[in-house]
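Thread title: Can someone regenerate the structure for this chain?

I was given the following input by a collaborator and told the matching structure tokens would be attached. They weren't. Posting the sequence so someone can regenerate them.
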Amino acid sequence: MAGRTTRTSKSLTQPLFFFIDYFTLIYQIRQNLLMNKNDTSSISFTAHYTGYVWYKNRLSNDAFATKQGYAYYQMLRPIEVLAKKFIGSDIKTTLLQRHQLLDRELISLIQQHPDLQILELACGLSPRGWRINKKYPYIHYIEADLAGMAQQKHALLNKIDSLNHRHQVSICNILTEHSPDSVESLLKREFDPTKPVLVITEGLVNYFTLAHIGTFWIRLAKTLKAFSAGYYLTDVYPKVTQHRFYHWIEFANKTLKVSSKSSFSMHFEHQQEASEFFKVCGFPQVTIFNPDEELSDQPKTKGGSLVWVIKAQV
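Best answer:
Regenerated them for you:
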């Protein structure tokens, strides 16, 4: 009995030490990289890491892989192995799950609407616009982000000759409403209301409180109604209260909230709750996808997926 108690205690404390080490390391690397005068603070440390994940999984051009992203990727590799063992998933797996599902639904909409127009907000170092422009050169695709990141993305895409009259980069701040940089102004200025439009956000929602992102969703739904058809694709990290390590995951999220100086938090405990919230915001048609149920060619994550993908239509 005594031996069993020791093993149980160890199994419960290991995830705690893992998460403390995990996000302490992220914060330390971030601070070290920001001290580099050649680094640009216009690209977030999470954007550097995700950008390198896309590159390592052959989803992007090597121009998207930064030295900072490489540093994060290499330093976190052993800890990702521990995450896979103790939590049943890791950041890399979750990133790939959401990216694959978002791409699947996007391509489905292109097949349904050959004249689809696409706006990817908070684009960061996402390679999606580059890939779509190569495969579907007739699709009007605009990537948008805050001024500093938009400038960096424009330079990157220009370097690999990806910019053209169909694929462009613009400045947009989702928190502003009455401004040339607002999503309302961008959609009205750059998109044809007689054609369907799709707005995408990836890795954005959980960095805001539900009240703040909900206000944006209300504005977005209202703006999309001006088009012949309006769609919104996004991902969200839910409150995985049934996960065996929920408390440690919650602790990790709070740590990330501090290290990223954001309002990072998980939203929605059940899919029905999320669906109803989107409907209240102005999206009457809502579909929620769980990677474990949708990606049959990928192994299921132990304890359940940590991310959902949501498709909403006005």
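The longest helix spans residues 2-34.
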